[in-house]
Amino acid sequence: MKIAVIGAGRMGAALGRLWAKAGHAVVLCDVRPIEELEALAREIGHGTRAAHAQEAVADSDVILLAVPWASIRDALARCGSLAGKVVIDVINPHKSDFSDLEIGFTTSASEEIAKLAPGAKVCKALNTLPSPVFNLPECKVSGMKVSGFYCGDDEQAKQIVAQLVSDAGFDPVDCGPLSSARYLEAAGMLLIRIVVALKASPELALTLVRQDKPCC
User: Fold this and answer.
1) Which CATH number is 2-196 given?
2) pLDDT tens digit string along 56-72?
3) Measured CA distances, 193 to 101, 107, 180 (Å)
């Protein structure tokens, strides 16, 4: 799979690294100088490269949006048309001081992105995982494989996202339509409060515990 990572910060770089290691063709895009991205791409290896956003998007099947919520309009403008692309949104639309969400419950970052990018197959995924979790051995917390929640309105796109969630090392959990992003973003905000306000370790995750077979 060809994946363009828009926003090569902690989250974007960590996911790009995991997907490149799993054999996907990853290209990094950011507002930083291209020389810095090229250095990061060399460090990640596995054929990872750097490019400007519009070039990367045109040549990719999947687009990862991993920019701050305040930067989303600029990021989408740099990408050009996303029509027909599978777009994975990992953004939690929190305020700059991490005190609360900018939007929520009647809409979500993912739903607003879908409005701003007509024709894109937008899915929410992996936003409930703090970035340090991506750097743990096998992405496991206390030895446990953790849930990678995702949602979206396009079933084919969701199948692709589920596979990428699995390829990154997480247990894919389908949360239904894109409107479920409202609740995933609230869950993401809960973890932010636990980490920022209560100063807990960021190496934590929400996990859905399931039985393989019915209990009775």
Assistant:
1) 3.40.50.720
2) 999 999 999 999 999 99
3) 11, 21, 20
